[in-house]
Amino acid sequence: MKKTYQDFIAGARDSIPILLGVVPFATICGVAAISVGLTPFESIGMNMIVFAGASQLAVLQLMGAGSPWLIMVLTAWVINVRFTMYSAALAPYLQKEPLFRKAPFAYMLSDQAFGVTMSRFSNQVPSNPAWYFYGSAAIIWATWIASATVGTLLGTLIPESWGLDFAFPLSFMALMFAALKDRPAVLAALVGGLSAILAKGLPYNLGLVLAAFLGIGAGVLAENISSEKARGTAQ
Amino acid sequence: MNSFSIWLFFIIIAVGTFALRFSFIYLFGKVDMPNWLRRALRFVPASVLAALVFPALTYPNGALDLSLGNIRLLAGIGGALVAWKTKNVLWTIAVGMILLWVLQAF
User: Fold this and answer.
1) In this structure, what DSSP letter does residue A38 have?
2) Burial code of A68-78, b = ≥16 C-beta within 10 A, e = fewer?
3) Euclidean distance between the first and the last CA atom of chain A, given in angstroms as a whole number
4) Strand, coil or helix: what is A10?
5) A30 Cβ contact list (under 8 Å, min separation 6)
6) Which of A92, A207, B24, B82 is the most buried (most CB within 10 A)?
7) Å between A161 CA and nearest CA of chain B
8) Between chain A and chain B, how many beta carbons pairs sit less than 8 Å apart?
9) Per-residue model confidence (pLDDT) at position A111
10) Is the pLDDT assigned to residue A193 strictly greater than 90?
11) Would you place residue A17 in the very low, low, confident or very high pLDDT band (cuts 50, 70, 90)?
12) Alpha helix positions (H), chain B
């Protein structure tokens, strides 16, 4: 039986390669906040309290376009709904942990920490799985905050004429392609994206939320049809 | 937004996001995630991200522009090819931004 701190360190160590992706993404989140007119203090504060990069970038893009705050809040929440999946998958391993550790580490739950932890657990579950996750989540969180702070300071040096706001759709694009794992997901993206173009004229930027739900519906429907087909050929 | 309401705004987003992260870690053994929800959640990233990207490229100045004069659309298509091949945020931004600057120069 390994000691808890050994699993904590193992989780942190296994996360080092993925930090290569965390550093630039967090830096961009800092730069982007400055580019839409937040103060450095607000930018660092946003990274500390929200700590969810994709939703932060979405909010910043909408802020730059002058969207109402309710739409920005809903958009951020919809983007972050994926965390419930991670939460459900991690829950059994944190079952015996006290609330005062569960809560702060739930706050630190990130795509990357989930990815590292689950790929390890699918091979071999460590003696203290909760502490392995804590190690991964903590090093990723600390790296994120440090890089976002660097980005915030860099952001104040970059002139607006560089069109850096274009980095928002570009970063979403890379994240989107990473999510296109099968045909139903591709369909969800196509329906979501095209209906967002068509619904762009709706007031309060409601088209975004509507398009997201249409895309999700299309994905579920496509999956239903393909699984029924698979059942048909099996018979 | 003034500086008070912007902090309030961050806190509202953060509280909801924390609730989503904490949800099943807290509820484990009390409530099961319904199957339909689990299946729908899988499509959230692809759908939402596409809904953010497509209009950002096709409405460069607030009006629909599908012509070759829309340099953000052209640079975005270039970026999409890189995103598709690499799935890497940094490479996609690097290539997309350079394309934008080159097209701007013409």
Assistant:
1) -
2) ebebbbbbbbb
3) 48
4) helix
5) A43, A44, A47, A147, A148, A149, A150, A151, A152, A153, A154, A155
6) B24
7) 10
8) 267
9) 87
10) yes
11) confident
12) 3-27, 35-41, 44-58, 71-86, 89-105
